[in-house]
Amino acid sequence: MKRTLLKQIVRDRQNKQPVALVTQLDGGAQWLVYPEGSDASAGSQGKKNDDATGLPALLIPEARRSLEADGCRRLDAEGCAYFIQSFNPPLRMLIVGAVHIAQFLAPMAELVGFEVIVVEPREAFAQEGRFPGIQLRRGWPGPVLAELELDARSAVVILSHDPKIDDPALAAALGSSAFYIGALGSTKNHRGRLERLAAMGFDASACARVHGPVGLPIGSRSPAEIAVSIVAQAIQARRGQPE
Fold first, then answer.
1. pTM over 0.70
2. Contacts of 211 (CB under 8 A, 6+ apart)
């Protein structure tokens, strides 16, 4: 790999910018491909994606699909073999509510590759000793989630079970492209939650994005079991598997 490309990939990873590296296996030429709409450049000479000299045009959407799937793959195009490698920033899980379930969920999510941030406005819950090694943001979820800039690689899990905390967090999540939104509570509580969201102006399709009660229905009872069900459901949503 050319030093210039390696430096660019390192910079992109530091900036949490997704990028795919396309390598021509026969000749060794390489190009960088970014998500559609990105202002970043591509190509071994710093050219834009659509001007990347020598890169077959059909490989650009294929590289972007590999980025979306967090995958690597080999493809043949115009008589040559190519290999696509994805370099994505880590998936993030924003946990709103530093409750007992969150103490199990945070390390489990980290184990499967999420960058975890716990958001909690209540000082009694927002104690670093309860979440060793986990990022803890003290503050109300509305402004904190806005500052964290939720994107398509973000999962939001809302556990406080207090509408004053939950509803602003839900509004922030629904106003983003987060791939997963889950909220703790019974079926009855979830109906009330949906009514409040509707009163806030969210339509049925938006409300349907909220997984409630949160987690896969595996009969979980203990906080640790509930955490397992939440991590599994977030993975299911990320991989696009049917429920």
1. yes
2. 180, 181, 182, 183, 233, 237
